[in-house]
């Protein structure tokens, strides 16, 4: 790639954490976001994701809602407690108006029903990124 | 034939009995069938879309989609029972069977049980992997999906392996021996290995298995009667060539005569338990029950030259080179490095320029002995220092290897041979362990400096995800496909199943219109060709020869070649197509999507032949449409509404039966004006008839009002009789129209549905007959076909019969098409008289197209 490209990347890459107990979701989102220019870590259980969040600051968290163990809603609450700046996008296969409302109430940036297009989730992240960068 | 028989039984044309259920109720059932049919097709398409890779989905999605499908299909059959007043037992049986198979798959029980001991290569499909091991499953897709040439043959399956081991008591021996083995005792391990190998080599091939193998050899002997059959007997394990390559771990026995196949089979099985191979497995955590060996028996290739090829040379990845090793004679020379060979480094992109060619000194070559086995012989003096491959062969090899790479989305290690006739055979392809380095900086191409390279982004619908690089080739008509250059990106106005011809050559496909649900889309997914449809602007933005990169994972088309994108795809951790969810969905779709009942006139078009949900819905749709037309035509006296005569300055002599909200008139009204018509297709057609003014400009007729008089002047006077005119019938509802129109000596039949849901919409148009000689009538048919093709109809012409269809377009577009048909019906009514020579066809086509554009508000993207 040419040199000028480096300049466009001078802003540090945003850090994304993805939590979904269905491994396929993590496996597919990871390269898509890497390609879109983000650093990505994925987790399939909420306990490890939570402990990672305590170690490292993520700009964006993408989490499933309904999982074994701790559910996404509690994960969302806890992130918002520990790192209120982190933007959270909720993804779920059991989308209901209630769960969407609750997610927003708890501070989620957006709520995306599964299955979704890769481009949709990337667009959502881009919008969130814009918001984050404008705050900087 | 069921349909015809049914129709015949209903065909009490002269004395129709009153239908037992009111027509409006039957029509509601018909509508309900149409709706469910669409929901089902949408859901099928939706599930198919998920295979394209653009969507993120999980298991939950698969479960829910299947549940909905089961529900819809069941209810659709129930609706048909009311519409056709039959029990439709065969349909319910077919439904039960398919539903059961789907449940089994979802429960994780393979509905493809491993029961066969042998299988022909031609019968392998993507789900044969458990049966035939990785290597032959791979050869299966190379041969049966990608259509590349592999040596013919058969596989002795993993089932046969288990049977053999069980039969000879070896399974039990291994279990006991391993459980008692102290893992540090190397000597003991060696002796277990030796013992197992001996038991295998001395073992007896079960009689049933031996006869199965003999039967397979017989099939080969019938297929290839002229040669003495010699086989390559090769291993194919679970997991081999997969995550771990096991390369060279298992034995292959080459040039085996029929009489020695069983011995060779045992030799290959024994190699599973060489201490190296076994240790390799143990080292990598393979459990013993994960070990299953299938053995392929392929005809020997009479190899002139053979070798191996890496689609990524083990050098710096940025160099983007492939490497070919080649030697005279059989492959082991190269693969095992037994003698010197040629090494050619070539570019990864056409025309595959050679960067370097090292010609080895090839003194000896390996060849098959007549009696079996191999031998080294001297290479003729003049060939020793000569390159084994010419540039055509190199190109062919490069293209073929890249077809495999693109399909598997992994760099490939391909073993190949050219036979004495110059035919290329693929002997094996495995993912290459050496992977190109992931591009360090993934350019943020859309936002970064590459944004100036974006030709368009976010347009259209992704059918198959992936990266394609190459030159654009715009296809305007089918003949253009003949010259389709290998490696091009096909750009066209619409999707067509005819593109299946070039699927192998195309790196990508982009169209202006078309849906992700069509046949072409299915093929594109099957071949994994990155495909984008319905962009609206492809043919306007791209021209033949443009170099572009199509990235359907980001739904963007870039100017120029961006190699990083392709390298990123080849270096990803996981290939989506290899994931469990993908494989499960694909297996399920096999029970859902394929359409076997294609031709309604075929013997096989009956309920008992339905093998998939698609078959069931197709069958019901066909039966329901036939039934409705039948009811409309034969039972109209019993409809609840009074037939209404159309009062209009277009004297069509048309009687309308309004079955549901097709007019704004009360049921008892006996006449209707054009303004009373609410039926979308009917209104559009009539509008086309009048707005286009085609009557007035018609070469023969004078003006709109005198249409009938001019008509009767030219044609037989008997047509003026009210009895004849009264035969023109339209059955309409808000969205539906079935129109039979006899004008003079030709017939127009129009069946159309135009509503808000794109997938519901269709127009079926049929034109037949005429008063003039056959030649002139054929010219008129040609004229109609040419016009309709210009407006995106699928047209078939048989003599003076024209059948044109269009479906799944937006309401707006469909209304436009109806207007065109209206104009066309007017324009063509006496055209055959005027078509005195073939050249006039072209002239009149141009005239019509121009007039229809000027006189109606019909706009078509092609002409706008």
Describe, in short, the structure shown.
The complex is a heterodimer of chains A (136) and B (864). Helices cover 49% and strands 20% of the residues of chain A. The longest helix of chain A has 18 residues.
Binned, the helix content of chain A reads 40-55%
Largest sheet of chain A at a glance?
A: 5 strands, parallel
Q: Please trace the helix and strand order of chain A, writing H or E for each element.
A: HEHEHEHEHEEH
Biggest sheet strand line-up of chain B: 25-23-24-26-27-28-29-31-30
- List the total number of helices of chain A: 6
Broad structural category of chain B: alpha+beta
Oligomer state equals: heterodimer
Q: Provide the β-strand percentage band of chain A.
A: 15-25%
Count interface residues per chain for the largest interface: A-B, 31 and 33 residues
Helix content of chain B: 25-40%
Number of helices of chain B: 27
Report the sheet-strand fraction of chain B: 15-25%
Domain Response regulatory (chain A): 15-129
Keywords (chain A): Phosphoprotein
Modified residues (4-aspartylphosphate) (chain A): 64
Pfam families (chain A): Response_reg (PF00072)
